[in-house]
């Protein structure tokens, strides 16, 4: 049963989308737009500049388990106020740097803000507010990152017109002015407001819903049986380590594409910064279709069957980018890579929540990010080193594509842990 009012969880999703849009526009995808101006301004090598993102992702992975635990214990709102403030001030400081070591230092600080103030807390919140419709809600949340990335063209125009320093200051203002009101309306769990996930109400006559083998039943129940595992129990399952291996490969391809897509189009395909950013803007925009579409599919089909196919699609897509002969071939790469990449983003969250439950979701997902550190930290440095050595990004792209294919095979062995009475909790309002 459901009430006639709009379920508050959807406001959580909308607020999360807004924060995700900001992070996607200025931090996740935005660094690629800042990349060439920074090379010219700081006079650094590609490997050294790529190492900035690698090191910031390394720090993000190192603090991810702690950040996840803090969110599980204290909720997302408090941490978002802190993290968004750090991001806003960080962009102000970023606009004033004039040396590579300063860039490293400020991005380490901003990585802390990103972990505590944006994607992680809102993802934890959405995973707690939804069970049956978790795929759709998570897909919509991550569509915000895609929308933010599609603003790469606008950011590139802003850099061309006003310089990268002014553009960075604009980002700092937006993180504070827009991010703080969003943080204020965040809530951790529906039970904190006397509600149940998905907007259900207690109906003892309804059949219990059950999360089973990575899918959620379509029963309109109000009393939900859900697996709940501690971090220790999760790490004792084979699925956890298969997911960790797959996510390490996924993290490699994400960091490489977001950092080097625009420089590759500029330096090897031979287009202008504005054109490269325009093409790159279609990448996150098209990924929105995958994020929402596959998110909806995940509510109806076993996630474990979908993810390996999406990883395979990313490997093929990155290979297409590596052999791109001219800009006229970019649409083929964009369609193949963007849809599979976009679809994999919410499903990575959904499968963890479905396998291990809501109570410790932040901690367990943080542990998964921690163990995928090698791929996250080393991939951008490695591809930059390849360019410095041979004068091309293409060989590095092929190697990362092969790693993604390995991740697809790992997912085949990631089976849902068996649910026992000690792993099951009954969700009620209160």
Keywords:
430 residues; mainly alpha; Growth Hormone, Chain: A
Give a short overview:
The chain is mainly α. The protein has 18 helices and four strands. It has one domain: Growth Hormone, Chain: A, CATH 1.20.1250.
CATH-defined architecture: Up-down Bundle
Strand arrangement across the biggest beta sheet: 2-1-3-4
**Alpha-beta classification:** mainly alpha
Average pLDDT metric: 84
CATH superfamily placement: MFS general substrate transporter like domains
CATH topological fold name = Growth Hormone, Chain: A
Q: How many strands in all? A: 4
Whole-number tally of structural domains: 1
Low-confidence stretches: 204-223, 424-430
Tell the overall outline: globular
Distance between the termini: 17 Å
Beta-strand content: under 5%
The radius of gyration is 21 Å
Largest sheet: 4 strands, mixed
- What is the CATH level 1 assignment? Mainly Alpha
Helical fraction: over 70%
What is the count of DSSP helices, taking H or I runs of 4+ residues? 18
- Element pattern in H and E: HHHHHHHHHHEEEHHHHHHHHE
